[in-house]
Write a structure and sequence with these properties.
alpha/beta, Muramoyl-pentapeptide Carboxypeptidase, domain 1, Collagenase (Catalytic Domain), 2 domains, 9 helices, globular, disordered N terminus, binds 2-acetamido-2-deoxy-beta-D-glucopyranose, binds zinc ion
Length: 317
């Protein structure tokens, strides 16, 4: 831990030196605009206390938020009436409850303090629920059942629908970076690959020049053509695709750091998370797991037994 702290201090200097090219690409953002006020999730504050029956400006934004992360889909409901308005209806209430279950909050369906503050934490852009099945919570139920009705709750990793994974011929994966990726980010991602390699059957190496890498990493802003636009500073931080796609995108509008730096997000922590997606893991409801969807500024996190168990189960190891 002490070594990690020393590393963080050292990398603060690195951050300033090496992330300059990245930061200057967004010089239109004065440093003070990087505070919470600019977060795309800020609107949630105005919904504090809302519950079923309320009609409050901003509820439409809450619907978009819960749609984006897989909790709400008016297309699957017979009643489309409120898909685009500020009415807090039954469907929205049940989506809020599902969200609360996954984040260990009281499943009241009301936007209480804890629900609002949990929703506002910057997070991964990948949905928690893909195609309607809430594996983030089902895993937990399954464990409860196995423990013969005891109330010992065990949360769980998840996979993408259909359990996509790399074939055995692809356990040695190659990676490459979009040109212009800052050296600090390259080093961070390499360190994250090493973390996974040391605990799984995968190995990772830089693709030889001219060869097509299995995994590509780069920084992108706003709409960047893959159907999952980033949202400026705060909000979603990064996303990656299920096997065997190999794309891993950082949001270039974030304030990035190497290590725990107040007001910034750790490149390594986010890389360890996104590599989990690249290998086939979905989000976990275990708060300490790297695959938990959100990450606060100024903190670092590493692999957790839940993440490793997920990979072992997915690959029958
Ligand atoms: C929600 O509705 C209740 C009445 O049911 C009202 O007292 C409250 O002020 C409303 N809250 C908001 C945030 O609109
Ligand atoms: C709902 O359907 C509309 C029109 O087909 C589509 O544009 C939108 O992306 C769908 N929304 C969701 C959450 O699937
Ligand atoms: C849709 O929901 C609204 C209010 O929630 C209700 O008034 C309306 O009757 C519903 N329509 C159908 C077809 O269920
Ligand atoms: C979601 O389900 C639909 C229909 O069941 C299917 O066509 C689609 O491929 C699924 N998407 C994913 C990501 O599995
Ligand atoms: Zn994620
Ligand atoms: Zn992208």
């Amino acid at each position: 831990m002490a070594a990690l702290k020393a590393f963080s201090l050292f990398s603060l200097a690195l951050l300033i030196l090496l992330l300059l090219p990245l930061l200057s690409a967004h010089a239109t953002n004065p440093p003070n605009s990087l505070d919470k006020k600019t977060s795309p999730f800020e609107f949630l504050k105005g919904l504090h206390g809302c519950h079923k029956g309320n009609k409050t400006k901003g509820i439409q934004g809450l619907k978009k938020y819960l749609e984006q992360f897989g909790y709400l889909n008016y297309n699957h409901s017979k009643n489309h009436t409120h898909s685009n308005d500020d009415v807090f209806d039954d469907l929205l209430e049940s989506a809020v409850k599902t969200y609360q279950l996954n984040y260990h909050l009281k499943a009241s369906g009301t936007l209480d303090d804890k629900t609002v503050s949990t929703m506002m934490v910057p997070r991964c852009g990948v949905a928690d629920i893909v195609n309607g099945t809430n594996w983030m919570h089902l895993g937990k139920k399954w464990h409860d059942h196995k423990s013969h009705g005891s109330f010992h709750t065990v949360s769980h990793y998840s996979f993408f629908p259909g359990n996509p994974r790399w074939p055995p011929s692809k356990y040695r994966l190659t990676y490459g970076f979009v040109s212009g990726t800052p050296t600090a980010a390259i080093n961070a991602v390499v360190q994250a690959f090493q973390a996974w390699a040391s605990r799984t059957h995968f190995t990772f190496s830089q693709a030889p020049s001219g060869a097509r890498p299995d995994i590509t990493v780069g920084f992108y802003s706003r709409d960047h053509g893959d159907g999952y636009p980033f949202d400026g500073t705060g909000g979603t931080l990064a996303h990656a695709f299920a096997p065997t796609d190999g794309r891993f995108h950082y949001d270039g509008d974030e304030r990035w750091s190497v290590g725990a730096v107040p007001g910034a997000t750790d490149l390594i922590t986010v890389a360890v998370h996104e590599i989990g997606h690249l290998l086939g893991l979905g989000h976990s409801s275990v708060q300490q797991a790297i695959m938990f969807p959100s990450i606060s500024q100024g903190v670092t996190k590493g692999l957790h037994p839940d993440d490793i168990e997920g990979i072992r189960v997915l690959y029958n190891r």
